[in-house]
Q: What sequence folds into this?
């Protein structure tokens, strides 16, 4: 799919070492519009809306923050650990700056951690909400649709 | 000059300004704009510079460091400068960061203003104090499993003038996949009287550009650039009781503040309570120094709290989240009569939570200080 100048610029900014050390694309060589289109299709098949996913992620991050960097159990279903570095990171779309806040969310079943987790940051949530960009396959902050559905119980 | 236009806490985390510089250098080679004059604060300084680059980069090349949190990408709104001459209408990239008054007064994002002709600008005088220093790493020490103490000696008799509590920006060179120089903000933990050194406490952020460099690559003897001093986090000269709270690398400005107090014999002048929160004993540091400080200075109280002490820690001190311990002390131990000031340094989450506790105990927000852009 053809990319607008805005998306081409964003793809350049997503390369390793431009904004973050490892970038946003992992080993994925596809143009970001294709990554987005494929993930949108998967989310639709899974019956999960982006707004719903972001709302759950935001709730878990907010609750997790109360642990002041310690793991906390949220709603009896998740163990959430939120860690923060001071300062801000620009969005690759150059449309704002975001706190360096990370949430590690692990799913629990019957009160026991399952070992399955997702990692996302405040910037990652913005990319998901505004652009439906879940990051390239292999990226450390990739929000894989299937995993997101399972772990966040969507 | 209306200083309200400028965001007071100098925001300088973010990606390298080198990126913006690169783009503008290419443009300057293609288009020759010749020499232009920048008149700073109605004649207080006149800079003869080459035109073609943006105002932010050109000022930095001339030794004037306007705050920037995004490296000149037009995405932070921190690089505001009042322009007194006609440099064309505001760009669409500037509008979202400016209010009506600022637009009317021709306040501009300096990274978006391209220098083509002579220009007059107004900036706060304190920006003149910010300088770029070169230094050599004299000592690197692990103070915890994820925090390094890095001590720089400034080269060639350079001296730095800062207030205890302020921060500087360190710049790391390109490495691995990181193609540009990158700058980040770190509070200075050295005492201001040690004018030819600066010390920082750098906590490793997994996947972080600068902290990975500092933790995995930076060596003693290596040259580094430091830009300083920035920030509004310093002790207000009153006799109010100081309630200081920190966690992790938030220790840095307090180390500087307390040693500065000791040198200036100010420890006897007011009550100081220093709360430091950590998870286990391995996250605590400078314990001996702080306990010694407490023993030697009657009005200085140090309270360390562990949220998850391990059996092997044999911890007999306070336990619980630092907010709980702070609340307890504000209620039961610290005099209710005397006025109080809050000084906070740590993660934004900790800051918010401590502010809430302080408010609950009658402290007012205008007397609670922290680095706003942190
Ligand atoms: C005023 C001030 C004072 C400070 N003082 C200190 C101090 O004394 N000591 C100290 O240790 N720190 C301090 N800091 C913080 C410091 O400036 C840096 O922000 C911090 O060290 C992290 O820098 P970094 O380059 O290692 O991380 P960065 O590379 O800037 O950021 C890493 C983070 O980016 C996000 N990220 C990375 N990749 C992705 C992706 N693909 N998708 C989404 N998100 C992603 C994640 O949240 C990750 O954790 C201070 C900050 C300020 C503003
Ligand atoms: S430097 Fe960030 S908007 Fe200008």
A:
């Amino acid at each position: 799919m053809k990319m607008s100048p805005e998306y081409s610029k964003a793809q350049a900014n997503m390369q390793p070492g431009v904004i973050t050390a490892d970038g946003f694309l992992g080993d994925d060589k596809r143009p970001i519009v294709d990554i987005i289109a494929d993930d949108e299709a998967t989310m639709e098949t899974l019956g999960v809306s982006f707004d719903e996913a972001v709302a759950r992620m935001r709730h878990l991050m907010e609750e997790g923050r109360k642990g002041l960097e310690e793991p906390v159990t949220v709603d009896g279903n998740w163990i959430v650990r939120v860690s923060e570095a001071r300062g801000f990171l620009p969005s690759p779309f150059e449309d704002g700056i975001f706190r360096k806040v990370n949430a590690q969310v692990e799913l629990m079943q019957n009160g026991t951690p399952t070992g399955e987790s997702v990692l996302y940051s405040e910037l990652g949530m913005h990319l998901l909400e505004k652009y439906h960009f879940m990051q390239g396959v292999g990226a450390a902050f990739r929000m894989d649709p299937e995993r997101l559905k399972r772990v966040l119980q969507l | 000059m209306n200083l309200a236009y400028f965001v007071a806490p100098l925001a300088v985390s973010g990606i390298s300004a080198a990126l913006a510089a690169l783009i503008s250098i290419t443009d300057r080679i293609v288009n020759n704009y010749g020499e232009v004059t920048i008149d700073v604060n109605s004649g207080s300084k006149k800079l003869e510079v080459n035109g073609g680059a943006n105002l932010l980069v050109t000022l930095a090349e001339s030794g004037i460091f306007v705050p920037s949190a995004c490296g000149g990408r037009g995405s932070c709104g921190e690089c505001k400068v009042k322009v007194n001459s006609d440099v064309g209408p505001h760009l669409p990239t500037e509008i979202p960061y400016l209010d009506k008054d600022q637009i009317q007064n021709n306040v501009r994002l300096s990274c978006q203003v391209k220098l083509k002709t002579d220009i007059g600008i107004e900036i706060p005088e304190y920006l003149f104090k910010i300088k770029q220093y070169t230094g050599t790493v004299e000592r690197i020490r692990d103070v915890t499993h994820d925090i390094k103490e890095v001590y720089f000696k400034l080269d060639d008799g350079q001296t730095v003038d800062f207030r205890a509590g302020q921060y500087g920006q360190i710049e790391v060179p390109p490495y691995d996949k990181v193609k540009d120089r990158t700058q980040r903000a770190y509070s200075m933990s050295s005492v201001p009287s040690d004018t030819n050194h600066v010390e920082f406490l750098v906590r490793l952020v997994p996947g972080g550009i600068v902290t990975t460099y500092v933790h995995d690559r930076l060596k003693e003897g290596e040259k580094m650039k430091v830009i300083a001093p920035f920030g509004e986090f310093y002790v207000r000269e009153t006799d109010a009781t100081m309630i200081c709270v920190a966690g992790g690398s938030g220790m840095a400005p307090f180390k500087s503040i307390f040693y500065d107090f000791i040198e200036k014999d100010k420890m006897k002048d007011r009550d100081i309570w220093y709360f430091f929160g950590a998870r286990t004993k391995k996250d605590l540091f400078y314990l001996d120094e702080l306990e010694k400080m407490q023993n030697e200075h009657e009005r200085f109280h140090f309270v360390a709290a562990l949220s998850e002490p391990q059996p092997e820690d044999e911890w007999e001190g306070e336990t619980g989240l630092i907010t709980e311990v702070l609340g307890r002390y504000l209620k039961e131990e610290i005099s209710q009569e005397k006025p109080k000031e809050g000084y906070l340094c740590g993660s934004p989450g900790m800051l918010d939570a401590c502010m809430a506790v302080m408010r609950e105990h009658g402290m007012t927000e205008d007397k609670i200080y922290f680095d706003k852009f942190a």
About this structure: Chain A has one domain: 5-152. The mean pLDDT of chain A is 93.
